[in-house]
Amino acid sequence: MEIDLTGKVALITGSSRGIGRGCALEMARAGADITLNYRQDAQGAYSVAEEVRAIGRDVLVVQADVANRAAVDQMVTETVGRFGHLDVVVCNAYYSKRLPFLELPTEEMKRCLDVTLCGSFHAAQSSARQMVAQGKGGSMVFISSLFAFVPYPTSLPYNTAKAGLDHMAATIANELTSHRIRVNTIQPGWTDTPGERQFTNEEEIREGAKKMPFGRLATIEEMGRAATFLCSDAASYITGATLKVDGAMSLGPDWPGTRPGSV
Length: 263
Description:
- Strands 3-2-1-4-5-6-7 form a 7-stranded parallel β-sheet, with helices on both faces.
- The protein contains 7 helices and 7 strands; from the N terminus they run E-H-E-H-E-H-E-H-E-H-E-H-H-E.
- It is α/β, with parallel strands linked by helices and 263 residues long.
- It is globular and about 45 Å long.
- The chain has helices spanning 18-29, 42-55, 69-83, 106-134, 156-176, 202-210, 220-231, and strands spanning 9-12, 33-38, 59-63, 88-91, 138-143, 181-188, 242-245.
- Helix 1 packs parallel to helix 2 (42-55).
- The chain has one domain (9-251): 3-Layer(aba) Sandwich (Rossmann fold), CATH 3.40.50.720.
């Protein structure tokens, strides 16, 4: 079956760059109209919007901090006001701060959980309520991480949030089956995104990529295509699943990054 989202409306949180951008563009290529969400990077969001329009799809750009429930509810309201319905949500927005556990400020832990875990909850619940009211089912994808099960050092808040997100997504999937709303999770491997540059310089990325099983990092397009598949009718019997899109990264006994200084 062709991967087709024609007639669908997709809301993607954190879609001004990185994996969120990849999801927005691939879903637009599959025929969906898009709501782009950003918190700070307006320039990036409007740049992605121009790319979506160039593909031939309609697009709405909404500034919202997903940690703010009222802002998320308003974003869903604006989406439905613009397009008339909402069919797909990708919970992608995150916050990460890498520090050793002994040096980690409480506020950094809280901010990561507020955005990465609770922000995904807000986007999922608000969107699901709209989908239930429409009575035509829907699809959700949560963007998780291999760090949900790999205890990567200096990344306690992010690791914890992603582990919780995986179980949250599975529970939501279980509860929404009667509404025919499918809920799945993607665990990306090391992906070439602007966010990686917060923690790793270009030389480290270049050298680390050589150690990957495929000899390179994943691309945002590959993540976007995986999310598009899961949200399409081609995946109509898939829910509660976790899809690793990591190029065999998690299969190795000592893939780069499991210990400090190993990249």
